[in-house]
Design goal:
alpha/beta; Arc Repressor Mutant, subunit A; D-Maltodextrin-Binding Protein, domain 2; 5-stranded mixed beta sheet; 12 strands; about 40% helix
């Protein structure tokens, strides 16, 4: 079996994924000229063109599309095997998500998972930035939005149905909140005022000025303020399941507002070749299902 030069395969795979010599060079920390040279070296080795060089960029030929799929899977296998050997018996799983999602949903559930998977280490990278999974050596990311996510496999994890919650102290002596308790000054906003505006419209609360209330940079600040009895936070129910169960927070007895937004687990298609990564994926998707987050989408 005659194998191609591995460095040329690596350079081709990055160029094919980005459809850009310049972006591939940036990822690989080399010059664009070096990338072009290695791609042409591979094409000479194979005896066929992998790209059509167009005035506005690159397009994969049919042969290039087939070869990209094979190279991506092969490089992933090599990477996973290398990581296992380098890490010894323990396998590292890297997942990226926002700080709020990490603190409110993922991390509280991880301890139970790790008790049953002692051979795994889960490293959580909390950031608001959409990471490049391959370039930044990240196995999974949880993304919030409508999608799609080109080049990645995306699985629905949680719905984003929003419910108002507050401290029981705010509505005492009643053990629950009701629509009459909602007022403009009591609104705790997450980033913008749009969520509360849409929720009030859906509930027919024309009397409530959704332009009032305090705005926080993230959902975590709004939840902390709600726990302190400062007002109502509008949150995804699964993110405050513990607080609702212990009655540190109480929810409003009103229909949740359905939205097309949701949380999705995204990863490169070849990631699940690795049994450790598949085990984490199976667990986190199951956790989403148990939280009531799986929908027909």
């Amino acid at each position: 079996m005659k194998l191609p030069p591995l460095i040329a395969v690596r350079f081709f795979e990055a160029t094919a994924r980005h459809r850009s010599v310049r972006e591939a060079a940036r990822e690989l920390h080399v010059t664009p000229g070096a990338v072009s040279q290695q791609v042409r070296r591979l094409e000479d080795f194979l005896g066929c063109a992998l790209f059509d060089r167009l005035p506005r960029g690159l397009a994969l030929t049919p042969a290039g599309m087939d070869y990209q799929a094979a190279c991506g899977e092969a490089l992933a296998r090599i990477g996973h095997a290398t990581a296992r050997l380098a890490a010894g018996a323990r396998r590292v799983v890297r997942v990226s998500c926002t700080p709020d999602f990490a603190a409110q949903w993922l991390v509280p559930r991880l301890q139970h998972f790790l008790q049953h998977a002692p051979e795994l280490d889960v490293h959580v990278n909390s950031t608001h930035r959409a990471v490049d999974l391959l370039a930044e050596d990240m196995h999974f990311a949880v993304r919030h939005g409508l999608g799609p996510y080109p080049g990645l496999h995306a699985e629905w994890l949680l719905d984003d149905d929003l419910v108002p919650v507050c401290s029981p102290r705010l509505v005492a002596p009643r053990p629950w909140a009701q629509l009459a308790d909602i007022t403009g000054p009591r609104l705790l906003h997450d980033g913008t005022r749009d969520d509360w505006r849409l929720w009030c419209q859906a509930q027919g609360l024309a009397r409530v000025d959704s332009g009032q209330g305090v705005v926080f940079a993230g959902a975590g600040g709004a939840v902390e303020a709600a726990l302190a009895g400062q007002g109502f936070a509008l949150v995804q129910r699964a993110s405050v399941a513990r607080e609702l169960a212990t009655q540190a927070l109480v929810g409003l007895q009103a229909p949740a507002v359905k939205t097309p937004l949701g949380y999705r687990l995204v990863y490169r298609p070849e990631a699940l070749i690795d049994p450790a990564l598949r085990r984490f994926r199976d667990w986190v998707v199951d956790e989403g299902a148990q939280a009531g987050g799986i929908s027909a989408g």
